[in-house]
Design a protein that fits this description.
The complex is a heterodimer of chains A (400) and B (224).
Chain A: H1 2-11, H2 13-49, E1 55-59, H3 74-82, E2 84-85, E3 88-89, E4 93-104, E5 107-114, H4 119-123, E6 128-131, H5 137-145, H6 156-163, E7 168-172, H7 173-179, E8 186-189, E9 192-200, E10 208-211, H8 212-220, E11 228-232, H9 239-250, E12 254-258, H10 262-302, H11 304-312, H12 317-353, H13 363-390, H14 393-398
Helix pairs in contact in A: 1-12, 2-10, 2-12, 2-13, 10-13, 12-13
Chain B: E1 5-18, E2 21-34, E3 38-42, H1 49-56, E4 67-70, E5 73-74, H2 80-90, E6 91-94, H3 106-116, H4 124-131, H5 147-159, E7 165-169, H6 177-194, E8 197-202, E9 213-218, E10 221-222
Parallel strand pairs in B: 3-8, 3-9, 6-7, 7-8
Antiparallel strand pairs in B: 1-2, 1-4, 4-5, 9-10
The chains are: A alpha+beta (400), B alpha/beta (224).
């Protein structure tokens, strides 16, 4: 049957190619949307794992991707630092992060507001490739810690003087390369002009760092608020037990998670977006398989006489159904192959046009594409195959 | 001794229904054909010849019949799958319009009945191609052949599996006289050499000379 199916497909080359191309486009959409989600999540998770801490403390909300503002107040950080059991303090260090947004490198970046004194926890072994990790921001942070407050009045000159040392940025080399940023370049954030003072090796938790105190001064009038905390445990502490103890201490408004679970949390948070993307690409795929169904159905109509010939030779109804399935299967397999190639091309194009996006075409995605392609192809062939099988042989033979 | 009837039809009726109007085509037809016999059925257009052939070839179920036995099997009680299997194993068709599959080569067309039966395709296809004078055209598609060549290929496909019964519906209807003579000669030779039972429908009285028996049909009944 496969030989007959193959002969039929090669006899109608253009129609077969268009059908396979339709499936291929659907498969590519599926692979790219999935690969984009998985690649971005994997990359962010890996970067977050680079922070020198064991736990993350987050607002008790389902979605950690669309976290806005800084819901944690000073009391949370103080409480985290004071939490202790019989073995001593639960936290060796508490590292607050204040999230903002900045448009750099052609796309929105999450801005990490971190205390300059704690920057080493984010850097780890990564080198500073150009400039320094904050020049004057440490002095600014020290002044804030000493009790200096932002001006009460919206006096630009007073604000400029107050913030002068704090308007510094550190970026990673990937963003620097994509955006062609150099030391000394200025970037507008929240109405202020920040200056890039350092470029560090890629792999750090954020692509853009600013002094925590500066963002607090601009966004929340200097209140010691935070978007999340990293918690570094004392050596030898059981991570799970510490997480449970901190969770119990902070109550239900807060969720305490292992830092290594951040990828899972991202996946969970992305589920709703993913659902939309999968639904979109799934609908595209359904349209593609409807194209196969239409092709196969047209085949039945156009090749009624051939079906009659096959019936006259004694091909059974099941045989005709198998023939229809074999043709659809071959189209689908070709479509899957085309889809994988198109997805790889799209990945390369995306990498060139949007270098900060990561598309991951993993084995799982390719297997899924194969299963969906083959399964969809077989399903699309069932009705046309059934119609072919039910044709009256004498009528089919007399068909023009 | 009871004759070995390969076709034994009693009181065969068939009618087509179009838009609620019933149009009888076969009206109580009786037909018996011995194994190895070459029977030609002649008659005017619309007398029911092709309908009869379709019923004998198990491509069409009759409206009613007292008995319809093909190759010893009672067809009236046979389910669709059984009729398809019997057709595959017992009957070969030659049509006026050749009916070769356009998507595959002549060689594959001829080998198809063997493949459908699950038989090994060995030298028989080449031998038969040689026999019908198409050895040079084996790898061509049917559309690349002349009409005479196509009909010879169709005959080769019909007889490759050594069927018990060959049904030919106006096999020379689309051919010129020279090709018609070649085809008739081929059928006669196969009948003679292989003892093939042939039931052939034709308008052409010249073709009847090859037959053991000529039957005339009119208004859905056989006259002789």
């Amino acid at each position: 049957m496969f030989a007959l199916a193959w002969a039929s497909l090669t006899h109608h080359k253009l129609r077969s190619l268009l059908s396979a191309l339709a499936v291929g486009i659907g498969i590519m959409l599926l692979l790219i949307s999935r690969g984009l989600a998985n690649g971005s999540i994997a990359e962010v998770a890996q970067r977050m794992r680079s922070v020198d801490a064991e736990l993350v403390v987050l607002p008790a909300q389902d979605n950690i991707i669309f976290t806005n503002g800084a819901p944690f107040r000073a009391g949370h950080e103080r409480y985290l630092r004071q939490l202790a059991d019989g073995s001593g303090p639960l936290a060796a260090d508490v590292i607050p992060v204040f999230f903002g947004q900045v448009l750099m490198g052609g796309q929105q970046q999450r801005l990490f507001g971190v205390d300059p004194a704690q920057m080493s926890a984010f850097l780890g072994p990564r080198r500073v490739l150009a400039g320094r990790v904050f020049e004057h921001a440490a002095d600014f942070a020290a002044r804030i810690r000493a009790g200096e407050r932002p001006p009460d009045e919206p006096d630009d000159a007073a604000w400029d003087t107050f913030l002068a040392d704090g308007l510094e940025l550190v970026i990673d080399e990937r963003l620097a390369r994509v955006g062609n940023y150099r030391i000394g370049d200025q970037v507008q954030i929240m109405g202020r002009r920040f200056r890039i003072v350092g470029i560090v090796e890629a792999g750090v938790a954020g692509r853009v760092f600013a002094p925590l105190q500066t963002l607090r001064a601009i966004a929340v009038a200097g209140e010691p608020q935070a978007s999340m905390y990293f918690v570094k445990l004392p050596p030898g502490r059981n991570t799970l037990a510490a997480a449970e103890a901190i969770q119990a201490g902070l109550g239900g408004d807060v969720r305490v998670e292992l830092k290594d679970d951040y990828g899972r949390l991202l996946h969970e948070s992305f589920a709703s977006v993913n659902l939309y993307m999968n639904a979109s690409s799934g609908l595209a795929l359904v349209a593609c398989f409807l194209f196969i169904l239409l092709t196969m159905y047209t085949n039945v109509i156009q090749r009624t006489r051939e079906i009659g010939i096959l019936k006259s030779l004694g091909v059974s109804r099941l045989g005709l159904l198998r023939l229809s399935i074999a043709e659809a299967l071959l189209i689908s397999l070709g479509g899957v192959a085309i889809g994988v190639v198109l997805a790889e091309v799209a990945r390369l194009l995306l990498a060139a046009a949007r270098p900060l996006l990561t598309v991951e075409l993993g084995t799982g995605g390719l297997l899924l594409a194969g299963v969906i392609g083959v399964g969809g192809g077989v399903l699309s062939a069932l009705y046309p195959g059934y119609r072919a099988a039910r044709l009256d042989p004498a009528w089919a033979l007399s068909n023009e | 001794m009871t004759p070995d009837w390969i076709i034994d039809v009693r009181d065969l009726h068939h009618a087509y229904t179009h838009a609620g109007v019933v149009e009888p085509v076969l009206r109580g037809l009786d037909l018996r054909v011995r194994r190895g016999e070459f029977v030609v059925i002649m008659g005017p257009s619309g007398c029911g010849k092709t309908t009869l052939l379709n019923i004998l070839g198990l491509m069409l179920a009759p409206t009613r019949a007292a008995s319809l036995r093909i190759a010893g099997q009672e067809i009236l009680s046979l389910p669709e799958a059984g009729r398809t299997r019997l057709r595959r194993q017992t009957i070969g068709f030659v049509f006026q319009r050749f009916n070769l599959l356009p998507t595959i080569s002549v060689r594959h067309n001829i080998a198809l009945p063997l493949r459908l039966r699950g038989c090994t395709v060995d030298g028989q296809v080449d031998a038969l191609l040689e026999r019908v004078g198409l050895a040079d055209c084996a790898d061509k598609k049917p559309a690349q052949l002349s009409m005479g060549q196509q009909q010879r290929a169709a005959i080769a496909r019909a007889v490759i599996g050594s069927p018990d019964l060959l049904l030919a519906d106006e096999p020379t209807g689309n051919l010129d006289s020279a090709n018609a003579a070649v085809v008739l000669n081929l059928l006669s030779t196969l009948h003679r050499e292989r003892g093939l039972t042939i039931v052939m429908i034709t308008h052409n009285a010249h073709l009847a000379v090859a037959a053991d028996r000529v039957l005339h049909m009119s208004d859905g009944c056989l006259l002789d």
